Every structure is written in C-alpha cells, then in structure tokens.
Amino acid sequence: MIADLLSAVRMLSAPAFALTLNAALAPGAAGAPALWAAGLFGLAVVSDLLDGPLARRAGTASRRGRLLDHGADFAFVAGGLGVCAAHGALPWALPALVAVAFALYFADALRGRQSSGRLGRVNGVLYFFPPGGVLLGLLGVEGLEFAVRALAWILVGSTAVSIAARWRVRR
Fold first, then answer.
1. DSSP conformational letter for 87
2. Are 51 and 64 in contact (CB under 8 A)?
3. Separation CA 21–CA 37 (nearest Å)
4. Please, how many CA atoms are within 13 Å of residue 125, restricted to the half-sphere of its CB?
C-alpha cells in the first residue's frame, strides 16, 4: 500500500518535474525552476529507492505494484529526457529508445512474460542519471556536460541492445 503510494507520487510528480526542468533550461531562466526541479528529482529518486523494499518487507509486492513502479519510472525519466533533448542537452535517440523499451516491457508484462533482463534493469536505473547531470549543471556544478552526453550515448547503445534482446526473446 505505502509502496504503491510512493510510486503513484512519483508518477504524479512527473509532469511537474518536466515543466520545472523545461523552465530551468529556458534561456535566461533564474535559479528557482532548477531548485524546484531538483526537489522533484530528489523526491523521485528517494521514492524509487524505497518502494520496492517497502513492498517486499510488508509482503505486498505484486505484479500490479511492479507495473506501477516501472510506469512511474518511465513517466519521470521520459519527461526529463525529452525536455533535455528538446533543449539540446541530450540526444533525441535516448528518450525515443526509452519509450520503445518501455512499450516492449509493458506489452510483455501484460502478457505475463518475463520482466526485464539484467541489462534492462541496469538501464532503468541509469536513465535517471542524464537528467540528474543536466540538473546539477543548472545548479552550478561545472564540467559535467561531456560525461552526461557520453553516458546518454552509452545508454542509447545499451538500450538498443536491450530492445534487440527482448525482441529476439519475443519471437
């Protein structure tokens, strides 16, 4: 129950995160939108770290809860990645491939098929890093641009591999 509530809060905060991140990335933006976006990002990360362990500890882990958790993750990172790509901070290939990967995961989950493989789980965690790195830059941390872009392109490659692996298993 509490775990599902945390996932729901993350999902419901995704549009606000995308809007505040968009405002923070706008030319001439002051610091307040970046602070709001960072607060929402922190809330999302904490809720994502807590929801699974809380569900397992309470004995309430369920297929529905996993779908809600992954859906919340997708809503949050897709919004952040899309906004960053729209402002040129990340390549468009990343949010596009994340959408394809999630659609395949969700379709397989609805059919009762295997959830994500190891690479998919690692990617799912790492998808939070590029928007987080962009946010750190907006908050004054310098020198992250190359690392953030490099990670984004690595994720483009690993997501493509993950999609191909899932597609191969589906056939």
1. T
2. no
3. 5
4. 7
The C-alpha atoms of residue 5 and residue 69 are separated, in whole angstroms, by 10
DSSP classification of residue 128: T
Q: Which residue has the tokens 């945390």?
A: 6
- For residue 119, the one-letter residue type is L
How far is residue 167 CA from its own chain's centroid?
A: 21
Cα dihedral across residues 159, 120, 166, 52: positive or negative: negative
pTM comes to: 0.93
- The pLDDT profile of the chain, 171 residues, written as one tens digit per residue, is 898 999 999 999 999 999 999 999 999 888 899 999 999 999 999 999 999 898 899 888 888 888 899 999 999 999 999 999 999 999 999 999 999 999 998 888 888 776 668 898 899 999 999 999 999 999 999 999 999 999 999 999 999 999 998 888 766
* CB within 8 Å of 168: residues ≥ 6 apart: none
Fold exhibited by the domain 2-170 = Four Helix Bundle (Hemerythrin (Met), subunit A) (1.20.120)
93-110 and 63-86 helices, crossing angle to 10°: 170
